[in-house]
């Protein structure tokens, strides 16, 4: 189970995705129609390799590079997890289009993450717990 303070931090974060001509912000529990349009209605996951276990790490650049390599073959867009407040730095992430939730969970676990975001056409973004 994710600790309450971490679950709150995840909910109080903007998950920004960078498409070629625009950025789209995702919030847990909210539907983002523009994301549906840009992804052609495909399912998606927002995954980071940085700060495993929600502990700040000094090797984030290397970890992100490995995530990029791991996701070769998938349609990916750069992203950032941007906390609403506090001193936690934004986390480099990837939005992966067309990935199944089970595959995204597997990848999130490979990189030591507590949770990932997932979404489908016309549904709110949801936090998917990976630990516990």
3D structure, described in words:
The longest helix is centred in the middle third of the chain and has 11 residues, at 60-70. By secondary structure, the protein is α+β, with helices and mostly antiparallel strands. The chain has one domain. 27% of the residues lie in helices and 30% in strands. Strands 2-1-4-5-3-6-7 form a seven-stranded antiparallel sheet. The chain is globular, with a radius of gyration of 14 Å. The chain contains four helices and seven strands, in the order αββαβαββαββ.
Question: Quick gist of this model?
Answer:
The chain has 132 residues and is an alpha+beta fold.
Query: Helix count, per DSSP?
Result: 4
Count of DSSP strands = 7
Shape: globular
* Total separate domains: 1
Strand arrangement, largest sheet? Answer: 2-1-4-5-3-6-7
> Which structural category do the helix and sheet elements fall into?
alpha+beta
Topology readout:
Elements: H1 4-11, E1 13-18, E2 23-26, H2 33-38, E3 44-47, H3 60-70, E4 75-83, E5 91-97, H4 101-110, E6 115-119, E7 126-129
Overview features:
alpha+beta, seven-stranded antiparallel β-sheet, globular
